[in-house]
Structure to design on (645 residues):
């Protein structure tokens, strides 16, 4: 996949690049409005990650340009502004998703994957990981073509693991993905263990042992 | 001072006018009555004396004594007595009724003989004149008074009109409104000065408010990018090879703190947004459903049992997003502060929503409960903004918030004033 990361904060930009490059993606960067509009009009990208508040202009204008030139790139807007107006305007202009700073890279990654799965980008609505198959339309999971019964949270967890396979996911990242704003209520994270252990049990029963505990409290979904 | 009954300015002015006029009118009438009465009395007496001297004169000219009852009588007397002037009632055969007369009796020695001269004058006549004068006076005064009252009132109204208009303008002043207040011009110097000073004050308050708002907005906005960088860097770090378990624990703990800052920031922004009146959407929100959704959400988050009891459907007119926040904050506050084996109880009865949780002791300072950053339980992690947001939302819609402690339970009560049952 080819990415353009238009973000004027270089530190954040580079962090996104290193996270995405682990999946053998090609990442280009733009650090201001001019560079971003220049690159989107000249090259084709699969995904454009667009900061609204670019140094010399608005990311929304870059988005307009993209749509004007009829580029078939998935656009995910990132913004420090949690305002609904910005969000709606971005989505109206044709952005595919919107994420507010600060966000977890794993969360960004799972949003990117979700956007790419949509038919518009020629993606499939099923994700396969060895013997595991996830149907994102019907929210069901299969191991060796046999459906496994998962709760809503377990399903979300499995999808999150598979899209961020090979990465260390701390309990904080997982909690925020599953519960968003409520996650600060999960003080001792006992509840995460319950959900992860249930999922792990259901997968292990079918012979899929991919959820590994790392560093005592973190998790990694990986095929040895 | 505060309890003192307030009177309207114009009413006060007309009451004063009415009062003074009434006193003047009554006093004037009384004085006029007595003055006229004494004048008339003097006139009658003068008349009596003058008639008496004419009779005396006629007797001196050797005319025979004569009578014209009851107006005058002159007859011989045996001795000289003290003269007297008094009121007397005499039966008048011509009128066939008793009449009040003023009577002057004098005794005179004329040409060696003693005479008793009696002169009388009808008093009724003068009394009627008196009453006539008083009534006329009263009528003139009343008419003048009514006209004065009417014109005075009208003039007052016109004079104070700019004042009242500007008062309305001040009443409608909203710190969040972008429309500047418009003050009616007046040729009265004091009014113009008042307007000027109030305009100055309003602008100052508005500027301060704007600055504060802008500051809060800027701060929470500016914090977000560094937080995002920190979070992203940590996420890449924990994915590096060769970090130790201890280092991982540290990173994980930093992630938790970033999360706290993020939540804090979000709540602060929410408070600012409510302050900015950015929630203008009002819908008929089903509070029962909002509570139920909350219970479902929290089921996956906390082992604490939540019991929900409702008498009726509670519909409140408010922003649906804020209704969610309101319920969430109340429930999460209860979950944070309860013991895990004690259930949270939520009830909807009439237009009242109560959320209660177990507690060992009542709060020491319940009045501070809804203040920003007030935390009574130091061991519980909280942003200190949850209940402040609840209060803010309730204030926005005029709902009332109450706290009570009964039978080892902290009880939070929200009364949805505009609710439809």
């Amino acid at each position: 996949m080819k990415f353009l990361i238009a973000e004027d904060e270089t530190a954040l930009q580079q962090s996104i690049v290193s996270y995405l490059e682990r999946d053998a993606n090609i990442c280009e960067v733009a650090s201001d409005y001019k560079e971003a509009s220049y690159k989107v009009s000249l090259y084709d990208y699969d995904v454009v990650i667009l900061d609204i508040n670019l140094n010399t202009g608005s990311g929304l204008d870059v988005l307009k340009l993209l749509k004007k030139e009829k580029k078939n790139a998935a656009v995910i807007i990132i913004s420090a502004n949690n305002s609904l107006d910005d969000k709606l305007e971005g989505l109206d202009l044709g952005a595919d998703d919107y994420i507010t700073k600060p966000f977890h890279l794993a969360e960004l990654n799972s949003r990117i994957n979700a956007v790419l799965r949509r038919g518009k980008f020629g993606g499939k609505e099923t994700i396969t990981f060895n013997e595991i198959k996830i149907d994102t339309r019907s929210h069901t999971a299969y191991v060796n073509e046999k459906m496994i019964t998962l709760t809503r949270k377990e399903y979300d967890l499995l999808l999150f693991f598979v899209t961020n396979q090979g990465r260390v996911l701390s309990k904080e990242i997982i909690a925020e993905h599953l519960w968003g704003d409520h996650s600060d209520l999960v003080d001792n994270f006992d509840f995460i263990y319950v959900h992860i252990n249930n999922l792990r049990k259901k997968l292990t029963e079918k012979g899929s042992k991919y959820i590994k505990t790392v560093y005592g409290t973190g998790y990694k979904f990986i095929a040895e | 001072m505060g309890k003192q009954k307030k009177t309207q300015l114009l009413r006060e002015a007309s009451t004063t006018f009415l009062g003074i006029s009434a006193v003047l009118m009554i006093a004037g009438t009384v004085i006029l009555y007595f003055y006229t009465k004494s004048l008339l009395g003097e006139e009658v007496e003068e008349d009596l004396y003058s008639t008496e001297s004419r009779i005396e004169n006629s007797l001196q000219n050797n005319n025979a004594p004569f009578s014209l009852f009851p107006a005058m009588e002159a007859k011989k007397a045996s001795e000289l007595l003290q003269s007297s002037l008094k009121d007397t009632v005499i039966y008048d055969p011509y009128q066939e009724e008793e009449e009040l007369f003023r009577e002057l009796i004098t005794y005179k020695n004329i040409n060696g003989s003693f005479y008793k001269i009696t002169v009388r004058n009808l008093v009724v006549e003068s009394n009627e004149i008196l009453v006539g004068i008083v009534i006329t006076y009263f009528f003139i005064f009343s008419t003048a008074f009514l006209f004065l009252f009417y014109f005075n009132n009208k003039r007052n109204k016109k004079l104070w009109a700019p004042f009242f208009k500007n008062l309305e303008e001040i009443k409608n002043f909203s710190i969040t409104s972008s429309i500047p207040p418009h003050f009616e011009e007046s040729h009265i110097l004091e009014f113009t000065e008042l307007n000027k000073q109030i305009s100055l004050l309003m602008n100052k308050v508005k500027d301060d408010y704007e600055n504060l708002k802008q500051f809060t907005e800027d701060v929470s906005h500016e914090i977000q990018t560094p937080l995002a960088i920190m979070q992203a860097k940590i996420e890449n770090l924990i994915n590096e090879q060769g970090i130790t378990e201890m280092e991982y624990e540290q990173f994980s703990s930093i992630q938790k703190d970033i999360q706290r800052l993020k939540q804090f920031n979000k709540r602060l922004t929410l408070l600012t947004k409510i302050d900015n009146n950015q929630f203008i959407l009002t819908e008929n929100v089903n509070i029962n459903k909002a509570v139920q959704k909350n219970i479902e959400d929290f089921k996956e988050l906390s082992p604490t049992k939540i019991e929900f009891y409702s008498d009726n459907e509670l519909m409140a007119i408010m922003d649906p997003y804020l209704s969610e926040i309101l319920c969430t904050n109340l429930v999460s506050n209860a979950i944070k502060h309860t013991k895990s084996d004690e259930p949270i109880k939520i009830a909807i009865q009439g237009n009242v929503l109560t959320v209660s949780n177990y507690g060992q002791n009542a709060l020491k300072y319940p009045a501070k409960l809804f203040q920003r950053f007030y935390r009574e339980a130091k061991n519980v992690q909280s942003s200190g903004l949850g209940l402040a947001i609840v209060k803010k939302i309730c204030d926005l819609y005029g709902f009332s918030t109450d706290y009570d402690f009964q039978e080892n339970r902290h009880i939070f009560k929200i009364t949805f004033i505009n609710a439809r049952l």
